[in-house]
Design goal:
22% strand, binds coenzyme A, 187 residues, 5-stranded mixed β-sheet, alpha+beta, 5 helices
């Protein structure tokens, strides 16, 4: 088995790697993974997604890492870097993807470790990952030291606060749904 090498994917490489990236994303979404897309995800939409990242990669507000075996892309993961000054310590890990044939061999672990290095390199020591409760990634992340409790945010030099995520569903008929405020759907 060839060793896995994890490295940054540059914006200029996205076009060339798009077929493999699309396979990774569409395969995982269509298998039911929680990645922000609803299945079925068609290749054209997947392609559009990957190309849309180029601007952020150039701007430095996102890092894309690829895992390669024999120069073939077998996995990917991202780090989103909020630009707001109060969040300059924070990085969010997104879209961890490993090709089906390469799973169970530590590729996700290698990607996570490299993403942590990338975050630390940018002085982003507060790493966030949002996943579905019960997903294997939840257990894995807990094992890597991730915690579920309130998050301490902000710049170390400033006052630090716990962050609370508040939500309500404005389309909830039992709650505060106001049909008069909903614009009619086009068409
Ligand atoms: C989740 C995913 C990235 C794991 O990739 P992988 O390369 O197979 O994972 P690894 O081999 O590095 O294993 C990482 C850890 O997760 C555990 N794990 C991985 N897949 C698992 C599964 N299906 N069930 C239970 N545990 C699992 C492993 O036991 C391992 O823990 P360990 O090192 O303590 O033994 C891969 O299955 C995938 O791409 N899934 C579809 C996309 C997805 O769901 N991404 C996560 C979104 S947050």
């Amino acid at each position: 088995m060839s060793p896995t090498r994890v490295r940054r994917i540059l914006s200029s490489e996205i076009e060339r790697l798009t077929p493999d990236l699309v396979d990774l994303l569409c395969g995982s979404v269509n298998d039911g993974a929680a990645l922000g897309f609803l299945p079925p995800l068609l290749p054209e939409s997947g392609r559009h997604y990957w190309l849309s990242l180029q601007e952020e990669l150039v701007a430095g507000s996102r890092v894309l890492l690829g895992a390669f075996a024999d120069d073939v892309l077998i996995g990917a993961g991202q780090l989103a870097l909020p630009k707001w000054t109060a969040m300059r310590r924070r990085a969010e890990i997104q879209k961890l993807l490993v090709a089906r044939a390469s799973r169970g061999r530590g590729v996700e672990r290698a990607l996570m470790s490299a993403l942590h290095d990338e975050a630390l390199f940018r002085h982003r020591s507060l790493v966030v990952l949002i996943t579905r409760r019960g997903d294997p990634t939840e257990q894995f992340c807990r094992g890597m030291g991730y915690r579920e409790d309130a998050m301490v945010a902000g710049d170390p030099a400033s006052e630090r606060h716990d962050v609370l995520t508040l939500y309500q569903d404005l389309a909830d008929p039992i709650g505060t749904f106001r049909p008069d405020l909903v614009a009619p759907r086009p068409g």
